[in-house]
Design a protein that fits this description.
The structure is a homodimer. Chain A is an alpha+beta fold. Chain A is built from 9 helices and 18 strands. The first copy, chain A, has an 8-stranded mixed beta sheet with strand order 13-14-12-11-15-16-18-17, sandwiched between helices. A 6-stranded antiparallel beta sheet of chain A has the order 2-3-4-5-1-6, covered by helices on one side. In chain A, α8 links the parallel β15 and β16. About 3% of the residues of chain A have low confidence. The interface between A and B is large, with 58 and 58 residues. Chains A, B: GO terms for molecular function: spermine synthase activity.
Chain lengths: 350, 350
């Protein structure tokens, strides 16, 4: 509960509400930073009341899950009513936020790439494993279905066909009879969609495949269908390998692909590339990829949150440093489970 | 900061970190609900340390906006490092949440319809007015553009063409030469899109138009274009009236519409319709609307968050109680600024 108001000296009247609840009060010395009192009540209840010097009252109420929630709602209602009465006409804004739940079996808070606090409607952990490369979780969301979370980043949910469509060129491409290379893409979503268009051959290179495949082929079937049940099919093969040596081999062999889809881990958010080798690594993969891209071919990749303009600019700067000159376009796409708009790139040889 | 771990008795070592910061400690008696201490530091800093009896440590750090954030990050880092060292191997989970900002000029927290805590990337208030019916705000979001917020509900952002398309039948309808009735829709989005398809006539009935139009025609131009600049055009008219008497008049006159789009306020979330006249009101509008719907016509409306299944079921029950029998279908749509999936209905005469 946070109230913004114009005049203070309302403290004694508020205190009576806590006293009625038989809470034990402690007043803290703040050295000129307003009034600060804490109250311990029954069932482990704890209240922090601050009347800040610039006309803000904040009330934090902590309680346990098994506490009587309607009693606590009544307490907050009483505080709100009292404050409204005391400050009649002087309240600029009053706001009560949903409770933050900590230490629950299921963690519902997965901040966006641009660092905002977001509560998901997650009600269960479906799968959790650690590979040599990452922590792999599949969480169940009421609205998005199962969500693949890699190292704490929301990667893809069963609701996110929009992601797969965007990274395949937003329906404007024809994959029939084409040579396709997928880097990463362990959830199988891209593979499953490209296969439907009857390409000549898809080669997918995914390093951390085994633990991801186990989870996705069991729990992300709306995304991958049955494509991950076999590492090889009529027009696809999955190489469980580091893509860098594979790309180097293809360069040496003079292999060419009509489409390359890079679905490796996201652009690093670091804005100091000189201190971070991730950009070097990204550029290496880009450079090798462009070398095996057909002159009229297209390279697709995801970028980052549309709000992370510095990281996007840095990525675009890398595109100017490749051994083979390229042009690019970008598109902003709404991927349902991301809860933030996402940038996708199309890159081609000049 | 919340840590879940298996063994306790780590308190003294944690305390040393606060003592190094010259914070004043108060230990509170909790009557068997774990260890609870608070610390007041310089600049109005305040820390709540709780070691809960079921193996959870929570640390809340409160500070002012103008405080030295990197110093505070270092404090949290030190606490995290110490906890990891003390509980080596026994930590099930460790999580640090983005700061909750209270009392700021711009409120960034607009919970979803299903009650989840969501932080928007809002950086400014563009417009704020109170009409006789509602509080009207237009807020600026970095990624979604301007957002119309009515009575605290996110209504529509400039990014949300998906909403307008969904409530027009998801591109499967042809409005050319048709008679169209829009109920509500004060932001002008639907009107602007339907006009493009050259219907015979659009009648839009919006009660709280004046304050909404002022805001939207200035600040939501990506949504409404110039359509709100005039209350009348070649193939549309806007009636600034309560839709109920207008519908009653149309029923009496025997008017018929090919398409009716209900964009009035959302389905009430109350699950006790017998105690709430909102459902009665909703049904009245539905009943009148169906009476002026051409036998082969379609009625479109938004429903609710896909997670609010009780409210959706109640709405569907109302559809079974109309004086003219109807069938319906529904679609789940991702409206970018909603940050939750939304249900849209298509209703037609049996």
């Amino acid at each position: 509960l946070a109230v913004l108001f114009d005049s203070a000296s309302t403290v004694p009247d508020l205190l009576s509400i806590f006293h009625e609840q038989e809470m034990t009060e402690t007043v803290h010395e703040t050295n000129g930073h307003g009034y600060l009192a804490t109250f311990v009540g029954k069932n482990g209840r704890f209240v922090i009341l601050r009347v800040h010097s610039h006309g803000l009252v904040t009330i934090d109420l902590q309680c346990y899950e098994e506490d009587n929630i309607s009693q606590l709602d009544n307490l907050l209602n009483a505080l709100e009513t009292k404050l409204k009465a005391l400050l009649n006409g002087n309240i600029t804004r009053i706001k009560r936020l949903p409770a933050l739940i900590r230490g629950a079996k299921v963690d519902r808070y997965w901040p966006t790439a641009d660092g905002r606090l977001i509560e998901y409607d997650i009600d269960g952990v479906v799968y959790e494993e650690d590979s040599a490369y990452q922590n792999i979780k599949i969480l169940h969301s009421q609205q998005f279905g199962n969500i693949l979370v890699l190292n704490g980043d929301v990667n893809l949910a069963e609701s996110d066909l929009a992601y797969t469509q965007a990274i395949m060129g937003s329906g404007k491409e024809d994959y029939a009879g084409k040579e396709v290379l997928i880097l990463g893409g362990g959830d199988g979503g891209i593979l499953a969609e490209v296969v439907k268009q009857k390409p000549k051959m898809i080669t997918m290179v995914e390093i951390s495949f085994i633990k991801v495949i186990d989870g996705c082929k069991m729990h992300m079937r709306k995304t991958c269908g049955d494509i991950l049940d076999n590492l090889k099919g009529d027009c696809y093969q999955i190489l469980v390998e580091d893509c860098v040596p594979v790309l180097k081999k293809y360069v040496k062999e003079g292999r060419m692909f009509d489409y390359i889809i890079n679905d490796l881990t996201a652009v690093p958010i670091s804005t100091e590339p000189e201190e971070d080798s991730t950009w070097e690594f990204l550029r290496l993969i880009l450079d090798l990829s462009i070398k095996v891209l057909h002159p009229s071919g297209k390279y697709f990749t995801q970028g980052n949150s549309v709000n992370l303009s510095e990281a996007l600019t840095l990525y675009e700067e890398q595109l100017g440093k490749l051994s083979c000159p390229v042009d690019f376009s970008k598109e902003v796409v709404c991927v349902p489970s991301y809860l933030e708009l996402w940038v996708f790139y199309t890159i081609w040889k000049k």
